[in-house]
Amino acid sequence: MHTPTPSNILCDVVDALPVSRLQWEGLALCVLVAVLDGFDTQIVGFLVTAMASTLNVTPQALAPVFAAGLFGLMLGALLLAPMADRLGRKRILVLSILLFGTFALLTAFVNNVSQLLVVRFLTGIGLGGAIPNLVALISEYSPRRYSRSAVTLLFCGMPLGAMLAGLTVDQLLATWGWENLFLIGGALPLLVAGVVVWRLPESVEFLSRQPGSRAALSAIIKRLAPNLAELPASLGQLRQQATSSTSLSRLFTAGMWRRTLLLWLPYAMNLLILYFIMSWIPTLLVAAHAPLSMGIRAIILFSLGGVIGSVVQGWLMNRWGSVNVLTIEFMGYLTIVLALSQLPVSIYSLFPAMLLLGILVQGAQAGLNALAAELYPQEIRSTGIGWALGVGRVGSITGPVCGGLMLAAGWVLTEILSAALVPGIIALTAITLLRLDPASKQQPTPSQSVTHH
């Protein structure tokens, strides 16, 4: 038995009806924002060699730029996501898009490494604030039977954006220059922000806590269910029962602290792996005397694997359970990396391995985001997802920095791959321990929402 909340009532309305145009529009818009997020996050990794040449520095000298961008991602997730539970998810999402679009565009005008570091840091804040709110809105407006699939489909957008960034650089860098590619990466989010303001609804959970919101709630329900005569009376009656406590302490109550810590560990380790690969593989291959185009194509394959992994992740998790699928993915990652670290790496082994690693690593990241949406109740979901992503950004900062240090120390690819086993082992251990949490074993069904855990 659960206490009725506005989000539960919305779920009851959503589950009783076919998927509406509003839900399809919302999913498409959120995926589009995720594509732009992935494009702007990854494009700097593809352009590091060209930017270093223009700025008269070595590629290794731009390692702090990677760290600054990822530190911004961490702050955006830690600060903007909890603000969304208090100020509105749609508002903070729009603010985040405007931030990363504006400063991605300004990247085209930098003249030195210091300016580049500042604009990538501010771009990162916007990028970090967007994703937790996309996850929270998608999970709130999706039918419970499709909640995992919707969240993991959302995360197809990021590797798809990274893949598009690679294709854009591969085809246009020589003729357009890196500056114009940042103009593209900045202008598109600014255009999409206007569409989000126009078409994407605000969170019902948030609106239910605001005085005088009945008209806005009625408009949303009418878009979801045009044939519904009126807003369920209980939605307005429950407004005062909806909690306003969205502090970090809610993540560490008696029933939450263990799952919070065991979720943070694989987030950090998987993002360490993901951002190391995305940031340094092209440069590693150039250092091994391969052409830059080969490194770009390796990342395109990794991103393609991410799209495939994200597409199938929701179906796999619905069929076999979130934690079981994540366990298999981390075991698969360790197997592939161990094999690569023990064998001479050729292009013929690297490209298939990059595709498989994309499926496993980015599929696991989509799965971790879906798992976070399941483990936290709706009223603190943006806070929970935001802090998981924010703490995970410690790993995403550490990965590129460690990559730069290992390159500077003269490590070869096989030595770096051996070191990459460590975060995989830590992630697998944490997921194995999370199996003992009863909430991680529950399945969202028409009678049981992820918001009830």
Total of domains: 1
Overall morphology: globular
What ranges have pLDDT less than 50 throughout 5 or more consecutive residues?
A: 236-246, 444-453
Instruction: Say how many strands there are.
Output: 0
InterPro entries: MFS, MFS_dom, MFS_trans_sf, Sugar_transporter_CS
Membrane topology: Multi-pass membrane protein
Protein name: MFS transporter
GO molecular function, one term: carboxylic acid transmembrane transporter activity
Short recap of the structure:
With 453 residues, the chain is an all-alpha fold.
Sequence-ordered SSE layout with sheet pairings:
Layout: H1 6-15, H2 21-55, H3 63-87, H4 89-106, H5 113-141, H6 147-154, H7 157-176, H8 178-199, H9 204-207, H10 214-224, H11 233-237, H12 257-287, H13 292-320, H14 322-342, H15 347-375, H16 381-408, H17 413-419, H18 421-434
